[in-house]
Amino acid sequence: SQLKSNFVSMVSHEFRTPISAIVGAAGNLRAQGELSPAQERFIGEIESAGARLNRIVQSLLSAARIQGGQLQPRLDWCEVRDVINASLRESAELLKGHPVETKIAAGPQLAKMDFVLMQQALSNLIANAATHTPPQTPIEISARIEGKELLVQVSDHGPGLPADALEHVFDVFHRLPNSKPGGVGLGLAIVKGFVEAQGGRVSAANGANGGALFNIWMPAADNPELPEEKDE
């Protein structure tokens, strides 16, 4: 198991250099001046394929870290609004054509978490919703404190999850029937690994009105006391 994890990590690192060279070369071609429609199309295809390869390599590296027990979360108090906004910026290209609505409860919504790991977990859930739903399908992201936990939800109005797949959606390399080509079945497994490494938990279900619903719970007890704002 350790040998396999080391091999995946090594190969993934080796892939990153040529991928960066390909994407960089495409960018340099774009910067050379006016391009024909055909050249624009070809460069766009190179950049899109390069970005997809980058996501796959990053997923392989993340999976290797999880399976190898190499995750060392840096926990600190984070405002979930900042994490959600960062995830939306990172997922902007995938979200084109999908209306996104955020519902964040009023007031501070704080939890102790690793900002980078939580951002990646949310980005994976957002990418999953954008990839597995038709164009123009709305995606909703909500967050609120419930008792001693912060609940973050990502839901969509797509076809939802098959009932017999609910208990396996977070398995490594698990892909749903009729999934679009290009994925490797690691996105949701990484979500689970990253969340649990921070002391949280995650679940999948189908929404009451259809579509997939993913829940992330993070410990939010003993929130730090924030200084009161003074009127000037």
List the helices and strands and how they pair.
Elements: H1 2-30, H2 37-67, E1 76-79, H3 80-90, E2 100-104, E3 110-113, H4 115-131, E4 139-146, E5 149-156, H5 187-197, E6 201-206, E7 212-219
Parallel strand pairs: 2-4
Antiparallel strand pairs: 1-3, 4-5, 5-7, 6-7
Helix pairs in contact: 1-2, 2-5, 3-4, 4-5
Protein architecture, described:
The chain is α+β, with helices and mostly antiparallel strands and 232 residues long. Helix content is 43%, strand content 19%. The chain is built from 5 helices and 7 strands; from the N terminus they run ααβαββαββαββ. It has helices at residues 2-30, 37-67, 80-90, 115-131, 187-197; strands at 76-79, 100-104, 110-113, 139-146, 149-156, 201-206, 212-219. The chain has a 5-stranded mixed beta sheet. A hairpin with a 2-residue loop joins β4 (139-146) and β5 (149-156). The model has no long low-confidence stretch (mean pLDDT 82).
